[in-house]
């Protein structure tokens, strides 16, 4: 219990100390009108209270990732907790803050536009396709995951729940953001709190010791899988996740003041880190060994672990509520995933999204593609999602680093995690079965060399002055 509390306290301290440093480096302008004020359209640009924006942001980013990822990461042992804590403070929360605040400065622009402003048109076009693909993968993963949990809970077939969840996603994608997402998320948040706190209290009152294998930094994975790069792909949400870069612009369009950015963007990532700590701790404590956890995963995947842990620690009724709390997380990310994909496509096609007919013109084909992807094997989808997720994070970190360097600010707060994660994603792609399947002894050094080359590019490039976007001029003149 002591080690868990130490990790949580470190995360909270990171928000107040390092988060404040990041805010000062960015340089907020409280008097400057945000997109929610300057471009209020009653659909996507809607001023919302800071508490509500924080809650929506937290539920947007906290999908299955901070549950399934840490459960899988628990196989490596307590060393995974270090990545959750320090990854959240120095990489994930920094990534989320800049993805949100750079969108605020760009008039609420989606991630491809933000990337294009700093890295060029080629990067923008790449991110247009890549971000939409990632969001569709996220939407499908966050449909199949809760559908399986609800199927196990109710006895109703999984395809029925897939249809119901897709129907809700469709509605949440096209209606104004404050009509469904803004109103129902407080209820979802209550379920999330019950799930997080309830399971931790249940563990404390059970006969299960915290961290049954002891506190060790050894790699305990039953299959002896390497920590680098696999751990940093396995635990994405809860440490560092590129998916968040696609979600932050949604709330960048609702933040009422730039001074709220640290609480909304950096703070929500710290909150997700705490959720990841809880589930990693449950995985390492409820089961006697990583081998026992692996056996449950082999029989039913992370969903089986969630079901077994929840019902065992909280009983049938409490377990049902806890499982519903877990179900809420992916659903509250899946709905905004499709919404963010709609907005990215609308920006690319230059479609005004105020008329509902134009929203439907983009949403309907998108859901057809999503349904087709859902027919693929879940494990295959998850592996592609993991790589695509961290690749998006790499692009956003380099974008933030380039922006800081262009404005003569301390860019290393973004450059260092960008260098590290570039090596991770490239080594993973080269060594994984979904990639080139090279030996890690070859893939690892190539990943490191690629990081060094991109770093050299950043340090040697001139102060490339990107023409200001119309959205930023609008904010400046408002």
UniProtKB/TrEMBL annotation:
**GO terms for cellular component:** plasma membrane
Give the CstA N-terminal domain ranges: 4-144, 157-278, 297-423
Query: Keywords of this protein's UniProt record, alphabetized?
Result: Cell membrane, Membrane, Transmembrane, Transmembrane helix
Q: How does it sit in the membrane?
A: Multi-pass membrane protein
Q: Which InterPro entries match?
A: CstA, CstA_N
- What residues form the membrane-spanning segments? 67-94, 126-146, 158-177, 184-205, 225-243, 263-287, 313-332, 360-378, 384-403, 410-430, 442-460
- Any one Gene Ontology biological process term? cellular response to starvation
Q: Where in the cell is it found?
A: Cell membrane
Q: Does the keyword Ribonucleoprotein apply?
A: no
Please indicate if the UniProt record lists Ribonucleoprotein as a keyword.
Answer: no
**Name of one Pfam family that matches:** CstA
Task: Return the similarity comment.
Answer: Belongs to the peptide transporter carbon starvation (CstA) (TC 2.A.114) family.
Q: What is the name of the protein in this document? A: Carbon starvation protein CstA
